[in-house]
Structure formats: C-alpha cells, structure tokens
Amino acid sequence: MSAGFNARVSTLRKLSTQFDEVSNDKLLHLLQTLATMPLPLSPVLERYCDTLLFICAYPANVIHMFRAEQELQRVTLFLKKNRTAIPQTLYNTGLPFTPFVTRYSHDCTTWLTTHPDCKVTLEEFRDAYYTLNDILKCTLPTVEQSETSAGLDNNELLHALRVPRKQRLEFLLNECSRLDTMPLVKDMLFDAMGMMIRITPTTERFSRAYNRIPVGAHFYHSEIYKRFDHVALLQTPLPQHTALTSAQQQHLLTVIKNTMALTSRETDPVTFLDEQSLRYYQLERGISVAIYGMTPQRQLPLEQYIGYTLFKNGLPTAYGGSWVFGGNAKFGINIFEPYRGGESGYVMCQLMRVYQHAFNIGTFEVEPYQYGQDNPDGIASGAFWFYYRFGFRLVDATLRTLAHSEFQKIKKDKTYRSPEKTLLRFTESAIVFKLHKHTTPNIATITAHITRMIQRTYNSNRQRAEQECVNSFMALTNIAYPHTTNEQRVLTEVALWRAALNITDTGKLQLLTRMVTTKPTDVYAYQQLLLELFT
User: Is there a contact between 315 and 53 (Cβ–Cβ < 8 Å)?
Assistant: First the structure.
C-alpha cells in the first residue's frame, strides 16, 4: 500500500502543474483514488499534504480545490486520531496535530506561550554556550545570585530556586524579560542558553493546512503564468491598500506569525512586527501581499528592513523582505517548498511592484547568497538565470560581459548549462535591477565615512564622537533633546551622518531633524524624507 500511495502522490505532484484538459482529468481521478486509500503515518504524508496545498493555491477549477480540501480534512482527522503515535519523522512538519521540538528567540517564544491553538513546554537544553548560572546571575534578585556560584547544573539550579517543572519555561522567559531594555544583550544570552521547546498543537488552526486568510473569490488557473512583460507589471500602479477591520488585522497578523513558526523559521520583521506599519494589498491572479516594518527599538540604523508575506488564494506561499534606503532596496525572496514550481517569476515581480510603488524604489539589489554564494542549492538550480531573465544584471563589468556571453549560449542551445565554476564566479558580484538611473548613496558607504570620521577626528573615541556630533547637530538645527529612547537613538544616527558628510544645507538639515521623530513612528513617511534628502 505504501509504495502505491507514494507513487500516486509523485504523479499527483507532476499533474498539479500541467493544467491541460487531459492532465486535469487525470488529476481529478487520482485525487478520487487517493481518497479511497489508507493514509500512511510516514513522511510521504507530508509530501501528500504539500501537493494538496499546491492544488489549493493553484487550482485549475473549483472541483480540484474542493477535492484537495476534502483530503486535507481527512488527513487532519487521521492525525488528530493518531496524535499520541506521531513518529519523529513527522515532527516539525507543520502538519495538523504534529509537534515541534525547536528553538526560537525570546520574543517569539513568549508570543507562542500565549497562543490559543498550541501548548508550549520546555523540552531540554541543547548546544548551550552559557549555563543558567552564567545567565541568571545577570537577572536574579541580588539576594539569590549566590545560588549561581554553587556549581549546579541547569536542572539543579532550577530545583534550588524552587521553580516547579511546569513553570520553568515561564520562569526563564520572565527572567530574560528583565533585559528588555537591552534587546541585543537579551537576544544573545537567550540564544546562548540553548533552550529547546516543544510545541503541541491543540487545534487544526496551528498547521500549514489551515493557517490562511479568507479570500472573496478564488482564482482558477489555466496555466502557470511564465511569459509576461515584467517591466510593464512593475510600472502598473498599485491598488489602494485594503482597509482592514480590527478583527481582520489581528487575524492577518496571527497568520503572518504562524507562517514562520510553522516552518521553524524567524525573520526580524515578523518577530518584531510593528502593527501600525502593516499594509495589505490585493493584486491579480489570486495574489495578495502584506508588508510591515519593525518596532522602533528593533529598527536598523538609517535604513529600514521591511518584511512581507505573500499569499496565493489565501495561503502564505512566500516570505522575505527588503532593506529599504531611499531609492535603493536590497531584495530577497523565499518561496515555501510546497509552492515551488508555481508562478515564481510572476510572484517576484509582484513583490517588486509592491515595494516599488509603496516606497518609490528605483534600484533593486539581490545579494550573492540568493544565487549561490555559500548556497549549493542556488548553484545547482541555476538561480542566477532566474534573476537574469527578469532584468537583473551584475554590478561588476567583467562578470556582466561574461554573463551576457553565457546567456547567448543558452539562447542558442536549450540543452546548454553554465558550468558550476562560472556560476560561482557570478557570486563575486551583486546583481541589480534599475528602473531609472538615479541612485541613492549606499548605507555601507555612509557607515564607512562615519567610521573614518570617528578615527580621524575623535581618535576612535565613539562615546565622545556621539556626544559632540549630537551637540553640534542640536546647535545647527535648534532641535530639543528628545525624551524617548527611540528618538534619541535616531538623533545620534543622523548627527553622526551629518558630521561625517559635512551636511550644512538648511533644507537637508530640516529633513534630518524631522527624521528624529518620524523614523520610530512611520516607516512610509520616513522613506519620503529620505527620498527628498537625496533629490
């Protein structure tokens, strides 16, 4: 039975991307056949669910989608019935009622402990860099800190502190919360603890099958859309972002956060998501995109890390973000494995369209990791040519000439494949897509100017440099010293920037002044100030 089921699932996956009449008929017949077969409690079940999810995201018609949804329901009931017998091969898969044993950041773990659809417990400590003695001596009340010098192991220390086993996760999270005012220190210590948690879903909602947003009307496919005018698409204005009710926004936020947790991943924009920055766009072919910035205390200096989650017929199919700074954006795309083989190029261009219009981006840059640097899969898949076909070009002139020559060979001979050595050479340079010639100064260039200034003018004394640059900036602009920590941080950043580049123009100084209060509260208004500054 298992071999027959496995073979049918492989055939189903191949048929799911065809969309011609014969393939559609075969796919429906195969779904009906699989629905009569016993389900295996093995990794092939994950492959089956992934294929069903692809069909739900890229349905040829309502019948295909209905049959796939029925099978997802059958799988859910099967796993719920067998949840006490789930093998470890199905851990961390995100299938309904299957557990996770994994690790997340302090903030993500804390959020999970409040989740209505799962239970979270402390599993073990693994590959720890520090012991609890090292960490808790930084957080415990002073009268208890002597316990950390007695040479106890983690469990002995928790026992000595009279922390019941069921409360140990909550206790450790609370202790680390004492460091919330020093988030980077907190992150470092929490990660060094090596704490693994067990997540046990209590409802089917905490699963990849049912973590989705509602859609008004599904889009049905007659093909995988590969040939289109990507430049025209990028230039097509965005619709107004959707006005969400409070309930709709909270559901969307939960789905976004679930999407990462259910794949044992984290990105800073999701973990530290600023709800006020959330925008949701409904686009063509069943695609919708949510974009969002980070809370003020987690924002990057000067630039902004704006994350996204892309949905296809309500299912989260891609995630990533862009590092936005004026007219430039470093861009990355990650398509979840079940949805690869779909409209990847179209998806990428829709994402670029959202960023281009929401932030007025003129240049997109993709870093070499995305197409192979320290990434064997990127080399094996020829990811470089994926970007090349959509207008990305190497920054390095010599490599750009080599890429043009290679592409001509590919056009002449469809069987030709670029040597691995050549693809690795391409990773020596970033690639860019330019919508216009105007460029924004590079963050790295500005940072280099600041570092040189601190060395030359302040003899590498950074504390003195910050203080004197802030005083100078305040004298030039008549700005009052901010009351909030977040505004103080931005003031220091723009003051160093101003001093390093010797910005004295009154108009530019006014823009820098407005950034101090704008950056922590409005990512879109801050971007507009940057664009004006670089005009």
Answer: yes
